[in-house]
Amino acid sequence: MKKNFGKKIGLVLLTALTTIGLAACGNGGSSSSNKTADGKTKMTMWTFVDAQGTFFKNAAKSWNKTHKQKIDLTVNVLPFDQMNQKLTVALQSGSGAPDIADVELGQGAIQLKADKPAYYPLNSALKPYMNNLVKSRLDNFKKNGNYYGLDYHVGTTVTYYNTDIMKAAGVDYTKIKTWDDYEKAGEQVKAKTGKWMNEVEYSAMFQYDAMVTQQHADYIKNDKATLTNAANVRVLTQLQNWIYKDKIARTAVGGSIDNDQFFAEMNKGNVASVTMPSWYMERIADHMPKLKGKIAIAPMPVFNEGDYRSAGGGGTGTMVTNQASNKKLAAKFVVWAKASKGQAVKIWEDLGFDPVRSDIWSEPVMKEDNKYTRYFGKDIFDTFVQLKSQVTSTTKTAKISPDLNDYMLKNTFPSTLLKDKMTPKAALQKANDALNK
């Protein structure tokens, strides 16, 4: 028994050592274990959006038709929170991460806190495309001169109007140029139709963020909260007034305007307008079938002359982890999948996004028949072209960003928007003091 037991131990140790040796070769990218039988390089990708996973599967097929180095891509779609937790553990432990990962803008701010991010720079792969890319979207995933992620879209923020409600109220939405105009239009809409001009989110910051950045302002400077500046106070006051003073809006059902509850409200024709990034077109087209042909897209109203009429909203960077078996090839593939001309068109056709490669925005292909031109009209992209020079970057991402976002959604918005308990100025001062301790 002991003799056999010794043999078994020896076999186990030999097997373990062999496995470790193969794994070491695999991490270096030199083992045949990273190749399929027909010579393709195996890669894995994690994302939290089905459509984005499908986009990259199709991108891999297109890549293989035109490139010598073939790719065998496996895409895993995980729930948002689960993916972030799993990815964080894998990056911190140094093993178990995918080759490629979709990283949401806020999560990117957290993960790029490290002095040496656990991602591979995309600089070399980006170089041939840089002149045609919207730089502000690259800067969201930049650290120490390195670009670690490439976004799907610019996220041009616009105002979506229900034209049936506008007509019933006798309002010409094309003449709404300022937020004062918008407020007056809202009063007319409420008086003549009984509909809400807007619903104000308190569990998300898309509207708030866009209205701050369009004023050439921010709420972070040198990794400190600057929530007490005039622009922030002006925005929060405006949103609170819409609900409690002017009564042209209410707090959003479900807390935000990016959930099924709100989609149902707008689809029923109960809300006259929303201000959201371009990717919201997909939400409208998919969840509001009754409004087909009834949604107009216009530049954001402004507070003052000289303000931007748009802002970049949201974002998801596709990133290559330092654990990728062939980091250079993965970087080339990721950048090609989003920045090459044909793929940028696919981002519009398949996802409904305004691609980061902006030179194609005014090309005829952007007016060709697809899901979005059928819903909104063939000239839909004309508005985005008009706003190209007006799109300011989103507010800065920094080490304090996750804490600031968390505090605003848990404390500041509930005390001013969900309930009329504090003045915006006092609530923002309280947030500023708490965050900067």
TrEMBL record:
<dbReference type="Pfam" id="PF01547">
    <property type="entry name" value="SBP_bac_1"/>
</dbReference>
<dbReference type="InterPro" id="IPR050490">
    <property type="entry name" value="Bact_solute-bd_prot1"/>
</dbReference>
<keyword id="KW-0732">Signal</keyword>
<keyword id="KW-0564">Palmitate</keyword>
<feature type="signal peptide">
    <location>
        <begin position="1"/>
        <end position="23"/>
    </location>
</feature>
<protein>
    <submittedName>
        <fullName>ABC transporter substrate-binding protein</fullName>
    </submittedName>
</protein>
<keyword id="KW-0449">Lipoprotein</keyword>
<keyword id="KW-0472">Membrane</keyword>
<keyword id="KW-1003">Cell membrane</keyword>
<dbReference type="InterPro" id="IPR006059">
    <property type="entry name" value="SBP"/>
</dbReference>
